[in-house]
Amino acid sequence: MRLLVVEDDHTIRDFLTRALTEAGFLVDACAQGTQAERLALEGVHDVMVIDLTLPDMDGLDLIHRLRAQGVSAPVLILSARRSVDERVLGLDRGGDDYLTKPFAVAEVLARIRALLRRSTPNQPEATRLRVADLELDLIRREAHRGGTELQLTQQEFALLEYLCRNAGRVVTRSMVLDHVWKMRFDTSTNIVDVHIHRLRNKVDRDSDKPLIRTMRGVGYVLKD
Amino acid sequence: MFSRISSSFYRTAAWRLALRSTIVFAGSSALVFFMMYSLVARAVRERSDSWLIGESETLRQVALTTPKDALYARIVGEVAELATQEFAFDSHDDDASNTVFFYENGEGPEPPLWVGPSGKEAIITSLRRLSLSGRSAVSMTVPGWRMPFRVVAADVGPGMGRIYLGLQDHAARIMLARLLLWFFLGWISMVVFGFLIAVLGMRRTLKRVDAITSAAACIGTGDLSSRVASADKPNDEIARLAHTFNTMLDRISASVNQLQTVTDAVAHDMKSPITSVRGSLEAALSTDDPNLSRELVAGVVESLDRLSEIVTASLDVAEAEAGALRLRREPSDLADLIHRVTELYAPAFNERRQTLNTLAAKPVQAMVDQRFIVRLLSNLLENELRYAGDGAQIMVILTESEGKAHIRIRDNGPGFPPELLAHVFQRFAKGAKSEGHGLGLAFVRAVALAHGGRAWVRNLDAPGGTEIVIEIPTFAANPATSPAQTPTPDRSAGPLLPEPSTDVIVTSS
User: Fold this and answer.
1) Residue that is last in its domain, among B274, B293, B321
2) Which of A198, B18, B42, B113 suits A109 as a labelling partner, its CA being 20 to 30 A distant?
3) CATH for B137
4) Between chains, do B304 and A85 touch, taking CB under 8 Å as contact?
5) CB distance A120 to A30 below 8 Å
6) Does B304 touch chain A (CB under 8 A)?
């Protein structure tokens, strides 16, 4: 999988490049819109990550020009412009997803993966998820750990499902709020922690191998 | 006094206005004086003309009835002499003796009769050139005489010649000249006096404008406390201007103060996370323990999240208060939104041994932007989490009446400190023990206003605690509202002078 990162701030460009490379992507990074256009026209990228404020052109114009020239790879827009209008405009002009600064790297990764999934739609939807000895039946909404059924509320099941779908990857609090509760806001209170804590009590209490881990300052990860 | 007035005075509006009004005044009063003078002059002339006509008639009668004998010339001459003298010394002024002449030109062989001043030849020559129809006076200029004569002619009888009677009315002339002089002096003094009054009056008035100018100049140099002093003396245009100006300054100064407070508060709120970020990173760099270093860096990320939250919240509240929130309204069930948010928060409340009860059984439809209502609710609940205290009981109640939905958040916690109660919806208003940034409730109020609703707070009498009420028009009340429409808050929700006191009902403190 090859990504194009267009970002004029070299600090952000560098850490994005590093994080994406670590996550297993091939990354082309550049700071200029013209350079980005040339790279993108090669047509080898699976996802493009484009910042809206570029030194030589507006990111929206870049996206528009690429779309006009037949570049169809999904675009994740990065922007410090946070209003709803900007977001809508960005999506109208050919962007596929929109992330406002400041953002967590985990969130960038999750969005890129989501865009990749969207562009390869022929995967059959899984009906069961399995991580180590944890097994989720998505149709019957049941979860088993080591053969024992876990008594989960609907919400706890949804949370566990989200963690399992992202097994091995960090998810942030706001990603959890967004995907499990369908609410988008930042909070400095520990509401998500409390839910994770309760879920962990049910999933990990009777096991000597905890699956759900808290990455302090970043978020949570479910892994073997 | 004019010498003291600097040349800049001639460029003032007071000077120009006074000059213009004086010119108009001088012109019109001169016209009035001229008309009065003409009327008087005409009356005087008519008086002498009627004397002339009357006398000429008398003399004609005398000339007609006196037999044409040797005494004729003497009798008529004496009568004429008497008549002329009667009028000649009509004036009391000796210098102003009038000049009168009488001339009879008979057709017989007798020499013409002349009574009057010497130099009769010039007068008679002029009379001959005059064509006179009887019974009216005409003016006649005579070479050698500065002043024209008024002359009346009368035919004595068929074939009996003509009588001419002429008059130079010096007395009237002098009187008229004096009248003209007095009129002129009066006019001059009126104009000068009027001009002075106008200049002084306007200067006085315009000095008040100058006061406004200098107050504005002070503002220009950054002193926002300056005000126009004479704002309410006479209630005229300038007083109203001054009053408006002062009101504007009050608003500007209030908003600048508010901005200052906001800036100070943001700076203050951001300083501690920045300090902790810096300190933690320094510690992480200087430690060899990878676990400690990891722990410190995690703390840094948390501090940065907090910073980012402050920035986002400030921007949100500023946008909301400026009425710049673009709402995407859609028909929504407020009860459902409340259930979703309270379910999310319930475990957090349980962990603090607080109970969160929701009374929202019936669906309440309203045109709202769900994202903002969710954040409004989460702000309210986080407020309770932070301040209601351990073991508190929190109720969220949704009711609907008369086209309005009321969301009530009640707790039996300590309540707001009375001094804070009036300001809870203001940005950066927070209690001494608050860990928040004082933006949560400001955002709540701004969102309520943006939806055409209100928010208010009160401390409860018994058993104590606080109730915050959010009022939002329901679906039935505003079905026509288009989602794209920018909402207009029902009252000033602008950044200038929010008036939270009107939102607050204090029932107990």
Assistant:
1) B321
2) A198
3) 3.30.450
4) no
5) no
6) yes
| Structural domains for chain A | 2-119 (3.40.50.2300), 128-222 (1.10.10.10)
Dihedral over alpha carbons A101, A103, A105, A109 (to 10 degrees): -90
Sign of CA dihedral A113, A116, A121, A122: negative
Cis check for the bond before B463: say yes or no (omega within 30 of 0).
Answer: yes
Number of domains making up chain B: 3
Query: What CATH number does the domain containing B277 carry?
Result: 1.10.287.130
* Distance, C-alpha B313 to centroid of its chain: 42
Residues 6 or more apart whose CB falls under 8 angstroms from that of B351 comprise A194
**Nearest residue to B157 (alpha-carbon basis) of B198, B106, B232:** B106
In 3D space, the residue among B452, B494, B489, B496 whose CA is nearest the CA of residue B470 turns out to be B452
What angle (nearest 5°) sits at the alpha carbon of residue B139, between those of residues B133 and B140?
A: 95
Q: Which of B438, B443, B376, B379 lies closest to B405 in space, CA to CA?
A: B376
Domain that holds residue B166: 2-176
Chain A residues with CB-CB distance to B378 below 8 A: 183, 185, 187
Summarize pLDDT for B198-249 with one digit per residue, the tens. 888 888 888 888 888 888 888 777 777 888 776 566 678 888 888 888 888 8
pLDDT (tens digit, 9 = 90+) per residue, B389-435? Answer: 888 899 999 999 888 999 999 998 888 888 788 788 877 666 666 66
What's this model's pTM, rounded to 2 decimal places?
A: 0.60
Q: How far apart are CA B272 and CA B497, in angstroms?
A: 29
- Residues B353, B308: one domain? no
Q: Is B195 a domain residue? A: no
Task: State which amino acid sits at residue A60.
Answer: L
Residues B257 and B362 in one domain: no
Segment 272-301 of chain B within 8 Å of chain A by CB: 295, 297-301
> Residues B163, B102: contact at Cβ < 8 Å?
yes
Q: Do A191 and B306 touch (CB under 8 A)?
A: no
Using CB atoms, which residue from A182, A188, A217 is nearest to B299? A217
